[in-house]
Amino acid sequence: MTDPVRVAVAACGAHWEAAALTEIERDPGLVLVRRCVDVADLLASAATHRIDVALLVVDAPGLDAGVVDRLAGLGVRSAAVEADGTHLGIGHTARLGELAAVGSVPVPLREREREPGRLVAVWGPTGAPGRSTLAVSLAAAAAAAGHGTVLVDADVYGGSIGQLLGVLDEVSGVMAACRDVNRGRPETAASHLLRLGPHWDLMTGVPRADMWQHLRPDALETVLRGLRRDHDLVVVDCGFGIEDGYGPPSRDQVSRRVLDLADEVMAVGRVDPVGLARLVRAVDDAGPWARPPRLVLNGFRSGLGWTEREVAQTVRELTGHTPWAFLPHDGLGHDLALMTGRPLREVAPSSGYVSRVERLATDLVGQPSR
User: Fold this and answer.
1) How far apart are CA 183 and CA 178, in angstroms?
2) Please, what sign has the CA dihedral across residues 12, 15, 28, 108?
3) pTM score
4) Which superfamily does CATH assign the domain made up of 5-104 to?
5) CB burial of residue 274 (10 Å; 0-12, 13-18, 19+)
6) Handedness of CA 178, 180, 184, 185 (dihedral sign)
7) What are the DSSP calls for 2-21, one per residue?
8) Looking at domain 118-365, does it have CATH number 3.40.50.300?
9) 124 CA to centre of own chain
10) Model confidence over 108-160: pLDDT tens digits?
């Protein structure tokens, strides 16, 4: 005797919900495992591996192609009820009165087990060197190139990524994800991502500096490892402090852990006497490095009276590291991006800053992860 098909329903109040539930109850070949209240509930249920098919309403809040793909990765077949779901990657439409047919929905064909995505930490000394702006721009460039990208705000001194991108949701995604891990539900951490675009997710940070205790390094590591499995690139904006990265609990342990986990560390400094001095000291204090940091010198402009070659030589002599990239100053463009809550590439696509960051993104995503 064939086992009944285990079904989860995520109707979110759709007109067909009651009829579908009644049909499932009366069909001996189907069994209702979960009536999900939202997409997060659906993902959590799918992670238990007790669901064969998810019956979905295509306009459910938070439902997108990424969610359908995550369901497929968990072995769950998706069917859109009384609607076309091909724009979400759902190839089967379930009709009321014919729900028994969901048992024949093809098992998702998964590609080879994907290599984990690259984890890039964007870090820099105190003094606003442009770290968060670079993290946003890097993630935006990678996503625009078609790479699955997630931007994580892990600045324990008070995250700003959400505000930079005009996200008004006051719920901290990274806090919620770490809380799920601490409660033994790591599989639901990804449900706290916000979708910014076709290939771009965001995990918002802590809204206030005094909330750093909610980010435990071990929990954050678990979250980041999970995100690497689902994305080509994980960009983490981490706080400047690393002085107390080991020993008794401290806020700096989060940044230290991110730097230790990262495939690449982009150390950002401003191209001026104060900014360079801070960068040199910070790079020295953060050592020894498991892998050399990539120094990114931000805000280069002719008015400083230096050439890129002169700055590079000075930095190399003081740190032993050759600068990886110079990013030009674009005050007007960054002001417009800040005031509109959009990435620079959207408000000033011809900016020299944008083209430089695009090259950095190509370099990073094109390299194999370790």
Assistant:
1) 9
2) negative
3) 0.69
4) Response regulator (3.40.50.2300)
5) exposed
6) negative
7) PPPEEEEEE-TT-TTHHHHH
8) yes
9) 20
10) 544 434 578 899 999 999 888 899 999 999 999 999 999 999 999 999 987 88
